[in-house]
Prior knowledge:
The chain is of the alpha+beta class and 206 residues long.
Amino acid sequence: MEKQNFPIALSTRYLVDTLGFETHMRQIRERRGDKIPAGWYQRPYFYALRIAEDKMRENAQSVRFPSYVQKKDYEFEIVGMHLKPIQTIDFEEALDHVRNDMAFAIMNDCSCRDFQAEDSKLPLGVSASKGIADKAFGDVWAYGRDLNMDANGVFCIEMELNVNSSVRCQSRFNSIYFKEPETGSLRNWSFAEVITWFGRMNQGFE
């Protein structure tokens, strides 16, 4: 799929970004002297916002921060676009949707850490500060069925982030698995799991 003809033109531009990796969550909480809250293991932790069309940047375009932002940062993400609406509590239906009715690309979720730190002190989260800067999308899109995905909807792919030819981050998507503290069961917050959780909340995606 060609980027310029797909997400900007057809997307609702409504972004739901989950903090689904336990290691990432632990790092954030430890910096504040906190532990991972028990609720994180029971439901997705996310922010949501509608992205202004002029803040959806394409591959090779510069990302923009307002001049008043002092602590600029990038975040390495996989983003999924829904090609048709879905609202379901059935995991198999959600899994089929991820395979056949979603397209995936790399996203740079630009962050304004000074404003985000203030937002994080309040109960409603970081949605306001996350809307300040641009979001950048890669130009390579793939259906879920074309990616290596296990039976639980978790992608088995490696990711590497380079900045000016210097490797800054290496990761595997399947590190999203975690052990539920009380039962020891292996769980994850994959796209399919998030879809079915929203379904139980009587909400869906378009």
